[in-house]
Amino acid sequence: MKEKTLLFHIGPIWFDGTVVLMTLLTCCIVFALVFICTRNLQLKPKGKQNVIEYLIDFVRGILKDSLSSKEVNNFHLLSVTLFLFVFVANEIGLITKIVFERGGEEISLWKSPTADPIVAMSLAMMMIVLTHYFGVKKFGFGGYIKNSFLQPVSFLLPIKLIEEFTNVITLGLRLYGNIYAGEVLLGLIVTMANSLGWWSLPVVMPLEMIWIAFSIFIGAIQAYVFVTLSMVFMGHKVEAEH
Question: 3, 48, 77, 144: which has the highest count of C-beta atoms within 10 A?
């Protein structure tokens, strides 16, 4: 049976209901996590406050490696939000799997939003567009064109234009490919257990647990890589080329 997602349409426009629901759930989890960890802040942090402060410091370290010190504060909040969203979106599909059968097809109701190419590519496109926006905001349109595309030499313009498209593709597909592959393999392990029967559980259960642990690690790494590359691209647009 081929697995599909829940689709609905508003007028002529179709939407992936599973992705919409999981994206909203991801946003709610991120909001709840930040809200819980930042209640009753104290000068001497402990417990849940330590968690959010460690995360903030960790992301600040990413920015310090990618941006000049004067730009770090400008993009710190954006980076923390992006890291949390991508991390939760990567991991949420590992929690469970909810499907129902309809017309010989499995309709999935639970998956990682970033395991969908549209979501991953949209995130990548959003970040690349933001790099252009902040570049124009800082240098003005003329200065932005000169700094981003005509420096250090103008004959590199065609290569730099191509680079803008490849940045979107590599940023999005790297995220999508890793998360999608992890969920596919988890599904294959479950399918193997169902086909072989209960006697396969001593082999399948440890294998499933190992792969889930590895997928959690990969999800965290991909969130780190996505934020790092996004801020590297941002640095190319908001800092003067020499």
Answer: 144
